[in-house]
Amino acid sequence: MIVIGGGLAGLSSAVALAEAGHRVRLLEKRPHLGGRAASYVLPGGEHVDNCQHVTLGCCTNLADFYGRVGAAEKIRFFDRLLFATPDGRRGAMESFPLPPPLHMAPSFVRFPFLGWADKLAIARALLTIAFSGGRPADLSGDVGGTTMLAWLQKHRQTEPAIRRFWEVILVSALDEELHRIDARYGIDVFWKAFLSARGGYRLGIPCVPLGELYDGCKDAIARRGGEVLLRAGVRGFQVTGNQVAGVAREDGSVETADYYVAAVPHDILPELLPAEVVEREPVFSSVRNLRTSPITGVHLWYDRIVMHEPFLTLLDSTTQWVFNKTQLYGGGAAPDGQYLQLVISASHSLVPLSRQEIIELCLNELREVLPGIREAKLVKGTVIKETAATFSPAPGSDRWRPAQKSPLKELFLAGDWTFTGWPSTMEGAVRSGYLAAEAILSDLGAPQKFLQLDLPAEGLARLWARKS
Ligand SMILES: Cc1cc2nc3c(=O)[nH]c(=O)nc-3n(C[C@H](O)[C@H](O)[C@H](O)COP(=O)(O)OP(=O)(O)OC[C@H]3O[C@@H](n4cnc5c(N)ncnc54)[C@H](O)[C@@H]3O)c2cc1C
């Protein structure tokens, strides 16, 4: 079997197929694995992630994949979510020993950055989601016409509730602004992460550079006689009629296999297929309708310690997250100082700005939040703008997401953009990889399950989950 693309979708499908006893050849264009969730070394020797990547307790397939490749211990989970306002005040959200969906209610009641009217409005909307098991009646039959913002306005959310609660969580989780998010994606985030199960919201942060999470993949694939080839870009598929005859590599060689998994980004797939096949099969041409959304990462190295928390979520700021990489890496990232990473999702407004302008904007916002930076020396700063970080979960975007089994007999598709029911995330990518492997094994007449179940609903949420 040949898997093209060494991101999480390609890696998870390759590992699953190898575990099912198949010899897999994984062809990755770049010199490293991980795709968008990769890390690399800067000319100065610093290890940087393409961008900070976090997972949540409800991402059961990603957790399963990390377990299979020996990376589970490299993820540290946090039960306490820390927030800060531009004037430096702090607040937290955490779970209490109450049955879901009430487990976070005590910290929500005490949350200092929302007034009573805001909290009542939020509680009403959250209960509407909970009572419906994550499928509110006013969205049933909706084929993607309602945006999250429209749904929130319909449910009479106050302006601070939208800005300091819904937007903070959803822009980070879905990498898009509320007026461009399909309400069904937004509601799913709250049901799975905050309402149905106690551990769904727990924040998992890698304590190593992202590239080290994939160390075990090569072994898992090699154990069944397969191999991983880096700098092995594919130029295109050779297609005869309805069948794939082989793949042409960028070095001019041609490789053949019984099955092929294309685990490349959605905009690359049509370029790897003959134009007449893309024209003929709407599945391949319609992926071009998916739109993308940017994420900006800002990396700052200070000459001293300026932050004591492991991470902070900022309210009312362009900067959304600050990660204390030195602490998360156990002190190793900047032994004599501190390395911070800032993340701004759906960073449409930053795309036209220069790197220096972005750094200055963020530093201005951090002055009161982390007063230590006023005295400290910024040794180095760098900005990584990913203009097409994720596909935009716009209303109706599911229409353009193909299933893993393609119209060509031997070709299967994987990638966070294929149809998984999940947004563009590492969890979505691994789900797609497992689904592609399952589809191939079914085709071979030897079906096997890799896809993991969602966290089971707990407490009162169990009653409503059954109803849905
Ligand atoms: C800045 C940023 C921040 C993010 N933050 C988070 C987060 O915190 N949490 C989260 O869950 N998700 C996050 N995501 C999303 C997550 O990274 C992606 O959803 C996921 O990694 C996609 O995996 P994939 O395998 O589908 O695609 P990719 O990772 O894009 O992998 C595709 C692979 O195919 C390779 N390839 C392309 N063309 C060819 C070719 N011709 N031949 C061979 N190989 C080829 C590419 O080099 C790449 O390695 C973030 C994404 C970005 C960009």
Describe this structure in words.
Helix 4 packs across helix 6 and helix 5 (148-154) crosses helix 7. The chain is of the alpha/beta class and 468 residues long. The strands form 5 sheets. It has a 7-stranded mixed β-sheet. It has a 5-stranded parallel β-sheet with strand order 10-2-1-14-20. The protein contains 15 helices and 20 strands. It has helices at residues 8-19, 60-68, 105-110, 116-131, 148-154, 159-174, 183-195, 215-222, 269-272, 275-280, 282-285, 325-328, 355-369, 426-443, 461-467, and strands at 2-4, 25-27, 39-41, 47-49, 55-56, 75-78, 81-84, 90-93, 203-206, 227-229, 234-240, 243-249, 254-255, 260-262, 292-302, 311-314, 321-324, 338-345, 378-391, 411-413. The longest helix is centred in the C-terminal third of the chain and has 18 residues, at 426-443. Helices cover 31% and strands 21% of the residues.
Beta-strand level of the residues, as a percent range? 15-25%
Please mark out the parts with pLDDT under 50 across 5 or more consecutive residues, or reply none.
Answer: none
Q: Give the helix/strand class.
A: alpha/beta
The end-to-end distance, rounded to whole angstroms, is 39 Å
Work out the helix count.
15
Rg from C-alpha positions? 22 Å
* Largest sheet geometry: 7 strands, mixed
Helix content, binned percent: 25-40%
